[in-house]
Amino acid sequence: GVGSGGTHAAAAAGGRDSGTGGGAGAAEAPRSRSEERGPGKEAKGREEPRQASELAGRLRSVREAAAALPDPDPRQHAAVVLLGQAGAGKTALLGALLRVAGTWDRRAFEKFLKEQREASSSGAVPATRIERLAAEGRRFTLLDPPGQKRCVAQAWAAMAQADLAVLVVAAPTGELEAGLAKGGQTREHAALAKSAGVENLVVAINKMDSGGGSDGEAKWSNLRYEEVRSELWAALRGVGFHDDQVTFVPISATTSDNLGGEEDEECEACAGWYSGGTLLEILEMAPLPARASGDPLRVSILGREKKGNAMIVSCRVEQGEMEAGAALNLVPGGSECGVQSLEVSGKEVRRALPGELVQARLLGGQPAPGQALCGTEEPLRSAAKFKAQIRLVDLADDQPVVTQGFRCMLHIHQATEECEVTKLIEAVDPRSKKKEAAPKIVRAPMVALCILTLCSGHEVPVEPGAGRFARFSLRTDGGTVAIGKVVELPKSK
């Protein structure tokens, strides 16, 4: 009867769970498809379509509400990273630029200087400082990472967000040479900026009011300015910058001479031998990377923070347009999420254009730095192994010879992973133009084609080409070993 059948089923189920059978000859009830999948998988199978439907409904409401929101400020946005040897004066330059541009009043500037003195005396390594500055023709985000050698990873993360770089060097004799020496940060920062995708470099020759050239201690010396330019040109060409990609400008962050703004339309100190414009004028006129709103959406994740019950994600729109109410994919992983709201420069907007730094509130996603967002129609790939072209650079304290099996740290956009050179395919020596197939070793300044494999097995967002998801640097504790780009990914399964 019904009772007997129920008893048999219960006995059979008890036998499966506990390992004790229902006795010889006991009939085991047949297992349904849902039992074979397991209750968790069945519930998950029902839950996913429901969640997707709920997300789509919420995003429709967001799009309707966002239609009334404004577009971002029509002025071009440029992210500018300040680079250079510790002590060159780049943080003082940050404060001086904000003051002469009218962003800070004198009280705010003096507070900033006091904070810098206290931080310097404490010996603590500061976090990357981010400030905004508005000029007549452009909006700027200024990024000031620490300049110490042990903080190169922080500097790379800032470079990977930047459109332009200001390399700050100190004019006095001895300070410039220290930055250009092997292991110095001036040359390494320039190489990393080029590798990160910065195509235009402004060299701010600071402390011109201190003298220190071969003509004695003359201040604002044209001779010293030309000496510095000459020494830097060799280093900058050596890391890949062309003449039309570099602009030199003499400045003093301490006195604000030749920075621009209302207080200094013309530099009287360098009148007669310099006519190239103030630093702010140069930044307003510098070419920016080509930006196409119609390209597939690519967004790099920079950071995240909890505000109340919401997770706010800091990100940069690398290409395409990011819109409130859009459905996106998180890479790696492929999970779907949606854009609930967007803020640019503290103002809520309906869309963010290429090059914008954005604060985004997301629905259904918890991305972390090193991940990326993309559109659902043209997804971004991720990989733990790829073919790459690397150019070895002579920047590390103890320059290693790279062989198959060589391990180092890979820095690509905001991701950092240990990697291994698992295969050397070919190498070219740029001095002799000699090409070697399957080389046993490669060393600076050779260019090599190789296979890189991430040691953790974790995938990172990558995309062959010249964009931010292709460019990377390879470093050891001693310094930068190579700069490179992803040229090919494994075939999709």
UniProtKB/TrEMBL annotation:
InterPro entries: P-loop_NTPase, T_Tr_GTP-bd_dom, TRAFAC_GTPase_members, Transl_B-barrel_sf, Transl_elong_EF1A/Init_IF2_C, Transl_elong_EFTu/EF1A_C. Keywords: Elongation factor, GTP-binding, Nucleotide-binding, Protein biosynthesis. Residues 1-55 are annotated as: Disordered. Residues 30-51 have a biased composition (Basic and acidic residues). Residues 75-291 form the Tr-type G domain. It holds the Pfam family GTP_EFTU_D3. One of its GO terms (molecular function) is translation elongation factor activity. The keyword tRNA processing does not apply. PROSITE patterns: G_TR_2. The keyword Protein biosynthesis applies. It comes from the Eukaryota. SUPFAM superfamilies: EF-Tu/eEF-1alpha/eIF2-gamma C-terminal domain, P-loop containing nucleoside triphosphate hydrolases, Translation proteins. Residues 16-25 have a biased composition (Gly residues). Belongs to the TRAFAC class translation factor GTPase superfamily. Classic translation factor GTPase family. EF-Tu/EF-1A subfamily. PANTHER family: TRANSLATION FACTOR. This is Tr-type G domain-containing protein.
